[in-house]
From TrEMBL, chain A:
SUPFAM superfamilies reported for this sequence: CheW-like (SSF50341)
Superkingdom of the source species: Bacteria
Record-linked InterPro entries: CheW (IPR039315), CheW-like_dom_sf (IPR036061), CheW-lke_dom (IPR002545)
Coiled-coil intervals: none
Subcellular location: Cytoplasm
Domain CheW-like as annotated: residue spans: 8-148
Protein name per its UniProtKB record: Chemotaxis protein CheW
Main subcellular localisation: cytoplasm
Taxonomic source organism: Ornithinibacillus sp. 4-3
Leader sequence residues: none
From TrEMBL, chain B:
Biased composition (Polar residues): 282-291
Native organism taxonomy: Bacteria, Bacillati, Bacillota, Bacilli, Bacillales
PROSITE patterns assigned to the protein according to its UniProt record, in alphabetical order: CHEW (PS50851), HIS_KIN (PS50109), HPT (PS50894)
Protein name: Chemotaxis protein CheA
Superkingdom assignment: Bacteria
Residue(s) carrying Phosphohistidine: H46
Residues in coiled coil: none
Region Disordered, residue ranges: 270-295
Domain Histidine kinase: 298-548
Biased composition annotated in UniProt, kind: Basic and acidic residues: 270-281
Residue ranges annotated for the HPt domain, each copy included: 1-103
Organism of derivation: Ornithinibacillus sp. 4-3
Length: 156, 680
C-alpha cells in the first residue's frame, strides 16, 4: 500500500452507533454532507439510493443497515464517505466522520473471533490505540456485490 | 525517434487505409482494368508503408512495400490483374490487417509472412502464372519504351504557349525527374526544397504528380517537372543535388515538336487509349477529375479529432444541458421577462449546439460494413458456398460509441447467416433457388433509431429443432414450447444457455454465442428481433438508439419521486376514468383505440412508499416494445425534457426496469425507466 510509511497506515475514522471504524485513505475519495437521495426501487435494504455527486450518479449505502446495526435518524453530523474500489464508486452513510489518523502497523491485530456473530467477513482487523479501539474495514467485502446479489435473491 | 505519441494516429490511419484496400480490391475484382482503382490501392499501400516504416514496424513496411511493387507493376501495365492475383492480394491485406491488430493490442506487428512475400515477388516478376509469362515480356518492353516518351502526355494551350514563348526568348524547356532517397522521411519538405531551388533557376510550369499531391506526399519516390530556365542542364542538376536526400536527377530538354507529334499520334489511336490517358489524371475533363476534386475538398475540409476530446466536449455539454434545465426552471419560477427571453435564446442555441456535437460524433456505418465483403468472400471459400453480399445504406450515420460496439455482434450474425442460413449450392438448386445465396446488410434511420438488418435468402430457422434444443437445455418447458409463436421460437436462439457447444470453432453454430450478441445490443439500449421463413431465409433486425448520451424523455411523478421514460418508446399519454378499466385474466387492461393494453401500476411495481388515495382518473403512459404495448400508470406527467443519460455505476447492476439515471435541473437524480422490461 502506498501510504505505509514507516510501518504506519493512514486511515479515516468514523463512527457507527458507539463503535469506531476505519478505512484506508487510499480508498476514500471525499467526505460529503448528507444530501437528497433518490431511492432506487428493488435493491437491497441497505442501498439507500443514488446521489448526484458533482454530476456523477453515485449509489449510497447505509453502513448501519449493511452491518445490521439498528438504523437511526440522520442528523447534522451524518456524513457520506465516498469510497473507490476498482471500477466502483459508492457512498457510505455513517453517523460521524471523526478523524484522519496514522495507525502503527504493529497495533493492528486480527479480527476477533466472535461466537455466533452474523458475518464479520468485512472486518480486516482491529487496531488498539491507547484507549481507542478501531475496527478496520475491508471495503471490498463491504461492497461485495455477490453478497448483495445474494441478498436480493433472498428478498426478491 | 520516439514515435509512441503518433501511435494513435498511425492506428487510425492504417485502419482507414486498410478499409480502402479491402474495398478497392473488391472493386478491382469486378473492374480489373480500372486504373483509378489501382491508383487508389497503390496510394493506400504506399501510405501504410511510409507510416509503418517511420513507426518502426518493419514487417508491416516490408509487406506493404511488396504489395506496392505489385501495384506499381499493374499500374504500368507490366502485369495484368487476374483472379489468382486478387486472391494473393486479399491474403496480403488480411496479413496486414492482422499486423495492425497486433499493434493495436500492444504488439510490434511482427508476423511470419515469408510465404505471401514470395508470392507477391513472383507476381511482380510476372511469373505467377506460367501461361501468362509470355504475355508479360512484350508488355514490359512496351513499358520500357514508354519511359522514353515524355511523362507529360497532355499539356494545355496555356502551358504550350508559355513554352513556345520561352523558346523564342532564348530560354530552354527542361523535363526533369527527381528521385528521392528511399529512406527520405519528410518527402513533402524535400519537394518544397527542390521547388525552391528550381524557382531560383527559372519557372516550373507543371509537375507530375500535381503540386498539391506532392505536398500531401501522394507520390512514390520520384516526381517530374517541366521547367523553363536559362541555365544549362548540368547546372540545374548540380543545384538540385545540393538538396539532401536526393538520389538522382534525370534531366533532358523537352522538345515541343516531339510532344506535338506524339500527341497527334495518340489522338489517332482512338477512344480506348484516350480514356486511359485521361485516367492518368492530366486532363481537366470527365468524371475522373471531378472525383479527384471531391476528394481534395474532403481532405481540405476535415480535421482529425481524438475521440477522447469529443467525449470530453460531450461531457461538458452534458453539464451544460443540466444547467440549462436548472435555468429554465428558475426563469419559470421568477417570471422575469428579460431573464425568460435570455434563457429561451440560450436553450435554442444550446439545442443547435447539441445537434452539432452529436453530428460530430456521427460516423457512417460504412466503417463497420466495410470489412464484411472481404469476410464473406473468405467464408464462402471456407464453406464451399456461393455467397454474395449486398450492402444497402452504408452511408447511414451512427454515434461513434455505437459503431465501436456494433462490429462484433454483426460479424457474429453475418457468420451465422453464412454458416447456417445459406445452403450449399447443390442444395439451393434442388430447392429451385439460384446457386448463389445473398446476404443483405441494410442500415437505415427511423425516428430516433437506427435499424440494421441482416437478411439472408437461405434455409430459414428450423422451428422444431430450436424448440427441442431449448427444452433439452432446460430453457423452456414442453408446455411452454406448445404456446410459442414462430417468432418467439426463433428468438430462443438468442437465449443464454441455448447452445452448449463447447467446441470452439472458427465459425459460429447457429445460436453459438448469439446470446452475447443480444446482451451487447441490449446494453447499447437496442433490441433485436428475428423473422424467418422455411427455405425463404431469415431476417435479423437490430434497433439501436442514435446516440447513447442525450435522449428525449417524458418526466413523470410517482408520489414524490420523479422518473424519466425515454420518449422513443412512448406512444401517447392518456387519462382514463376508473370505469374504463377492465379485468382480463386477472390483469387490468384498457381499451386503447381498439387495442387491449395491459396496465402496469408503477407505484406498486417500484414499491413507492405512501400510496396516495386512488383518483377517479388514471394518468397512463402508453409505451411500446416492438408491436407489444403496455400502459404505465403514473401519478402526474411533468413534461418532455432532454435528459443526459448517466449510468448507475458498477455497484447497482441488476436494477429491474431501471436503465440508468439522469440529473434534473434542480440537481436531483431521476431514474430512467426501461419500459422494455415492463412489457411482457
Amino acid at each position: 500500500m502506498t501510504n505505509e510509511i514507516n510501518g504506519s497506515k493512514k486511515v479515516i475514522v468514523f463512527q457507527l452507533k458507539d463503535e469506531e471504524y476505519a478505512v484506508s485513505v487510499d480508498q476514500v475519495g471525499s467526505i460529503e454532507r448528507l444530501q437528497s437521495i433518490t431511492r432506487v426501487p428493488q435493491t437491497a435494504d441497505f442501498v439507500k439510493g443514488v446521489i448526484n455527486l458533482r454530476g456523477v450518479v453515485t449509489p449510497v449505502i447505509d453502513l448501519r443497515a449493511r452491518f445490521g446495526i439498528e438504523e437511526s435518524e440522520y442528523t447534522n453530523a451524518t456524513r457520506i464517505i465516498i469510497v473507490y474500489l476498482e471500477d466502483m464508486e459508492v457512498g457510505l452513510i455513517v453517523d460521524v466522520a471523526n478523524d484522519v489518523i496514522d495507525i502503527p502497523e504493529d497495533s493492528i491485530g486480527a479480527a476477533p473471533e466472535v461466537v455466533g456473530a452474523v458475518d464479520v467477513d468485512y472486518i480486516a482487523g482491529v487496531a488498539k490505540l491507547e484507549k481507542r479501539l478501531l475496527i478496520l474495514l475491508d471495503i471490498q467485502k463491504v461492497l461485495s456485490t455477490e453478497e448483495v446479489d445474494e441478498l436480493k435473491k433472498v428478498e426478491g | 525517434m520516439d514515435t509512441s505519441q503518433y501511435l494513435d494516429v498511425f492506428i487510425d490511419e492504417s485502419m482507414e487505409h486498410l478499409d480502402v484496400l479491402y474495398n478497392q480490391l473488391l472493386e478491382l475484382e469486378n473492374n480489373p482494368e480500372d486504373k483509378t482503382i489501382i491508383g487508389e490501392i497503390f496510394r493506400a499501400a504506399h501510405t501504410i508503408k511510409g507510416m509503418s516504416a517511420t513507426m518502426g514496424f518493419q514487417d508491416l513496411a516490408n509487406l506493404t512495400h511488396n504489395l506496392e511493387n505489385v501495384f506499381d507493376a499493374i499500374r504500368y501495365d507490366k502485369i495484368e490483374v487476374q483472379a489468382g492475383i486478387i486472391d494473393v492480394l486479399f491474403e496480403t491485406v488480411d496479413h496486414l490487417n492482422a499486423m495492425v491488430k497486433d499493434i493495436i493490442n500492444g504488439g510490434d506487428g511482427t508476423r511470419d509472412v515469408t510465404e505471401v512475400n514470395v508470392k507477391l515477388e513472383n507476381i511482380e516478376k510476372g511469373n505467377f502464372f506460367s501461361n501468362t509469362a509470355s504475355d508479360v515480356v512484350p508488355e514490359e518492353k512496351h513499358a520500357n519504351n514508354g519511359s522514353n516518351l515524355h511523362s507529360f502526355t497532355s499539356l494545355d494551350e496555356f502551358e504550350l504557349a508559355i513554352m513556345e514563348e520561352s523558346l523564342e526568348r532564348g530560354y530552354k524547356n527542361y523535363e526533369a525527374t527527381i528521385y528521392l532517397n528511399e529512406d527520405c522521411l519528410l518527402k513533402g519538405a524535400r519537394v518544397f526544397m527542390v521547388f525552391e531551388v528550381l524557382e531560383q533557376l527559372g519557372e516550373v510550369i507543371k509537375s507530375e504528380p500535381p503540386v498539391n499531391e506532392l505536398e500531401e506526399e501522394n507520390f512514390d519516390l520520384s516526381f517530374t517537372i517541366l521547367l523553363v530556365s536559362k541555365s544549362s542542364a548540368d547546372e540545374i542538376v548540380h543545384k538540385i543535388n545540393k538538396v539532401s536526400e536526393i538520389a538522382n536527377v534525370e534531366i533532358e530538354e523537352f522538345s515541343l515538336e516531339n510532344y506535338k507529334i506524339n500527341r497527334n499520334e495518340e489522338q489517332e489511336i482512338g477512344e480506348v487509349k484516350e480514356e486511359k490517358k485521361e485516367e492518368k489524371g492530366s486532363t481537366s475533363t470527365d468524371s475522373v477529375t471531378t472525383t479527384a476534386k471531391k476528394k481534395q475538398s474532403n481532405v481540405r475540409n476535415t480535421i482529425r479529432v481524438n475521440i477522447e476530446r469529443l467525449d470530453m466536449l460531450m461531457n461538458l455539454f452534458e453539464e451544460l444541458v443540466i444547467d440549462r434545465g436548472r435555468l429554465e426552471q428558475i426563469s419559470e419560477e421568477l417570471n422575469h421577462n428579460d431573464l425568460r427571453e435570455t434563457v429561451e435564446r440560450m436553450s435554442r442555441i444550446s439545442g443547435d449546439l447539441q445537434d452539432v456535437i452529436l453530428t460530430m460524433r456521427m460516423v457512417p456505418i460504412n466503417q463497420v460494413f466495410n470489412r464484411f465483403p472481404g469476410m464473406i468472400r473468405q467464408i464462402s471459400r471456407d464453406l464451399n458456398k456461393n455467397i454474395a453480399i449486398d450492402i444497402i445504406g452504408a452511408e447511414t450515420e451512427l454515434d461513434r460509441t455505437v459503431i465501436d460496439e456494433i462490429g462484433d455482434p454483426l460479424v457474429h450474425l453475418i457468420r451465422n447467416a453464412a454458416d447456417h442460413g445459406i445452403e450449399l449450392p447443390e442444395d439451393r438448386v434442388k430447392k429451385g433457388k439460384t446457386e448463389h445465396g445473398t446476404i443483405t446488410l441494410k442500415a437505415y434511420h427511423s425516428g430516433n433509431h437506427v435499424f440494421i438488418e441482416i437478411i439472408d435468402d437461405g434455409a430459414g430457422i428450423p422451428r422444431n429443432k430450436v424448440l427441442n434444443k431449448a427444452i433439452e437445455n432446460g430453457i423452456i418447458t414442453e408446455a411452454e414450447a406448445e404456446t410459442y409463436t414462430d417468432q418467439q421460437a426463433y428468438e430462443l436462439i438468442l437465449a443464454s444457455g441455448f447452445s452448449t457447444t463447447q467446441q470452439v470453432s472458427d465459425l459460429s453454430g447457429r445460436g453459438v454465442g448469439l446470446d452475447v450478441v443480444k446482451t451487447t445490443i441490449e446494453r447499447l439500449g437496442g433490441s433485436i428481433s428475428i423473422e424467418a421463413e422455411p427455405d425463404k431465409g431469415s431476417t435479423f433486425s437490430i434497433q439501436l438508439p442514435l446516440t447513447l448520451s442525450i435522449i428525449s424523455a417524458l418526466l413523470i411523478e410517482l408520489q414524490e419521486e420523479k422518473y424519466a421514460i425515454p420518449l422513443s418508446s412512448v406512444i401517447e399519454t392518456v387519462i382514463v376514468h376508473k370505469d374504463e378499466i377492465f379485468h382480463a385474466h386477472h390483469k387490468m387492461v384498457i381499451d386503447f383505440r381498439g387495442k387491449v393494453v395491459p396496465l402496469v401500476f408503477l407505484n406498486e411495481f417500484f414499491n413507492v412508499p405512501k400510496m396516495k388515495e386512488q383518483d377517479d382518473y388514471l394518468s397512463i403512459v402508453v409505451v411500446k416494445r416492438g408491436d407489444k404495448w403496455a400502459g404505465l400508470v403514473v401519478d402526474t406527467f411533468i413534461g418532455q425534457h432532454e435528459v443526459v443519460l448517466k449510468s448507475l455505476g458498477n455497484y447497482l447492476t441488476n436494477t429491474k426496469a431501471i436503465s440508468g439515471a439522469t440529473i434534473l435541473g434542480d440537481g436531483q437524480v431521476a431514474l430512467i425507466i426501461d419500459s422494455n422490461a415492463l412489457i411482457k
